[in-house]
Amino acid sequence: MTIYVSTMALRSMRLIGEKARGATLTSNEQVEVLAELNSFMDSCALERLLCYQVLQESFSLTTNTASYTIGSGATFDTARPTKIVDPCFTRDSNSLDTELRIMVDPNSYGKLQQKSSGTTYPEFLFYDQGFTSSGYGTISVYPTPVANLTLFINSWKQIGTFSTMSMAVSLPPGYQLFIESNFALQL
Prior knowledge:
alpha+beta; 4 helices; single chain; 25% helix; eight-stranded mixed β-sheet
């Protein structure tokens, strides 16, 4: 179902008695409410139940390269994942899949002394969710592959934020009520 961002915002405001049916928002109110709504939507990305999609994507790994940026416009050009989850694996040119273990602790990855062991297939994947000024995260594989492989990851994808109040959005079933009622609580 397609709905406008302004409609969801006004419904949220009606739930707390801020606006009457048929009311509209002034330009200043639209700017303020859109900023608050986007802040709410951004926080939703932190909870698995609020991420309506776990998406499997594939990316090319380059020989002798261990780290790759991920995000819109990065080496792995996709929406920056909130979290990378199992199963992740690499695939070689013979369609042989090799499972990767996800390292969630940066100290464990940092303690690996020999990052390049000369084996073809990485065994570990580490996702540094650190937020750089460019908005990228970093994926590192260990050991560094000595052959070109394809990396398959499964990641949480956010609902996203809204560019304008007049933006039309399509949401999975149940998400419109969730957004309207919980944004009302935030307001």
